[in-house]
Design brief:
The complex is a heterodimer. Chain A is an alpha+beta fold. Chain A has 2 domains: about 35 residues; about 170 residues. Chain A contains 1 helix and 13 strands, in the order H-E-E-E-E-E-E-E-E-E-E-E-E-E. In chain B, a hairpin with an 8-residue loop joins strand 10 and strand 11. Classes of the chains: A alpha+beta, B alpha+beta. Chains A and B meet through helix 1 and strand 5 of A and helix 1, strand 4, strand 5, strand 6 and strand 7 of B.
Chain lengths: ~210, ~240
């Protein structure tokens, strides 16, 4: 009995070791992924600490912050800087690390909420669509919508997009100041969700400059 | 030997556990929000995207405001005002209910629900999205309905119908001179429409958007790297038109 228990215990230890090994390999992949050429990693849009995000628990097994309440295939996080309405007027940035990206900014097409879209392309001529980010419930800064960027390769890149809105038009699904940041993760895009990680501290999305 | 056997057994167990763990994680990739990527290689490639809609082109980077029916196109860099939904007198918005389903029929009683009479061949409905505003006086306004259609190897098509206040313009923002997008002021069945497309001479897989306003309902048809006429036909089929 004792021997069986000892053997079982040893086996269990190996199984645990295996699980830890598998998870650590996957985790290491995400930590070292920044070195993958042609890939950029996108972070939360509210620039300041501290951070938290609303726990939707919509997708089983995913980090609870991820959800989809937009039309189309958009994975989203509702970011807050504080726990109340103090998020209003907090700076919102497009923030990424990694390979250079080619972006056009435009106004949102549907819905009654304020915000903007950052549309990514694979090439410097911005001809091959890669996917897009939405920054909702913000007041965009003048000069952003209608503009374009070619982000040169560097460690980090930021563009100030606007500030978290303190009010929203009627018809907008909104319950207080926060940033709703999402990405089109449809099969035709190059955007991938970092679904198991906390998006307030880890990169939230990655986008591949070429097929990946 | 005993130790070696034990280690070997342990390693086998570890590998099995690792494989099982990885398989569980991988199975989560079946989620529609984490799809296997299928590049849109069957969609039009940039050099094939040259058609522009009939109408009056809006020059990029113009300092002018272009008015067309209830649409206003503001200079690049402007911040557009967003029309909301008409509120009942004295009432405030309590919340917006958002519902999604793959079976659009579930929303057949929604006030903005109209199945698009025409959709380009080959695209299949993958998502129906409904929004309803709840007001403080207990009334409800069905405010938005959207259909998403997908076809493997192509980009999705989204059809959105949205109720808007009738006392404010629909503001769009023009693009800068280096952008690949531009607007054309057009008509669908005699009703003013604004079409966003690739700028002339700049073939690109930009978002193609047809907007038309009829009554209190703004219809928006969006797609990418597809014949613009297909999207205009989709939008046109959803409006009654000004002509008898």
């Amino acid at each position: 009995m004792n021997r069986l228990a000892k053997t079982t215990g040893r086996s269990a230890a190996w199984i645990v070791a295996g699980i830890v090994l598998a998870l650590s390999v996957m985790g290491a992949g995400s930590r070292t992924a920044h070195a993958v050429p042609g890939t950029a990693y996108i972070y939360r849009g509210i620039a300041l600490e501290p951070q938290w995000c609303w726990n939707w628990s919509q997708f089983p097994g995913w980090n609870g912050c991820w959800h989809d309440d937009e039309a189309g295939t958009y994975t989203a996080v509702d970011f807050n800087w504080g726990s109340g309405n103090e998020d209003a007027w907090k700076l919102v940035q497009l923030w990424f690390t990694g390979s250079q990206q080619y972006v056009t900014y435009s106004a949102l097409s549907g819905g009654s909420c304020t915000g903007l879209r950052a549309v990514f392309y694979h090439d410097s001529g911005r001809t091959m669509y890669a996917g897009e980010l939405h920054y909702l419930h913000i007041n965009p800064y003048a000069g952003v919508i209608g503009s374009t960027n070619i982000y040169n390769a560097r460690d980090h890149y930021y563009r100030d997009l606007g500030e978290v809105a303190g009010t929203q038009p009627s018809g907008c699904a909104w319950d207080g100041a926060h940033l709703h940041q999402s990405a089109n993760t449809d099969a035709s895009t190059a955007f991938f969700t970092n679904k198991f990680q906390d998006p307030t501290v880890q990169w939230a999305l990655k986008v591949c400059s070429s097929a990946c | 030997m005993h130790v070696a056997k034990s280690v070997l057994t342990g390693l086998l167990l570890a590998v099995t556990a690792a494989t099982a763990t990885t398989a569980v994680m991988a199975s989560r990739a079946d989620d529609p929000h984490d799809p296997v990527k299928v590049p849109a290689t069957s969609a039009l490639q940039p050099n094939q995207i040259t058609k522009v809609p009939l109408g009056t082109p809006v020059p990029q980077a113009s300092a002018n405001v272009y008015r067309h029916g209830r649409f206003e196109i503001l200079p690049a860099g402007s911040v557009p005002a967003v029309c909301g939904v008409e509120a009942p007198t004295g009432a405030k918005q309590i919340k917006v209910e958002v519902s999604e389903a793959t079976d659009a029929q579930k929303f057949a009683t929604h006030g903005v629900y109209v199945v698009p009479p025409y959709v380009p061949a080959g695209w299949m409905l993958t998502e129906a999205h409904a929004e309803t505003v709840l007001w403080s006086d207990g009334s409800r306004t069905d405010s938005l309905f959207a259909f998403q259609y997908e076809r493997s190897g192509y980009f999705p098509i989204t059809v959105t119908r949205q109720v808007q206040r009738t006392d404010c313009p629909i503001q769009l923002v023009n693009y800068s001179v280096d952008a690949n997008e531009s607007y054309t002021l057009s008509e669908l069945k005699g009703i003013p429409a604004v079409v966003q497309h690739q700028a002339p001479g700049k073939p690109s897989q930009v978002e193609l958007v047809v907007r038309v306003f009829e009554g209190p309902t703004l219809t928006i048809v969006q797609g990418r790297a597809i014949d613009i006429d297909e999207l205009m036909q989709t939008a046109s089929a959803l409006v009654k038109g000004a002509r008898p």
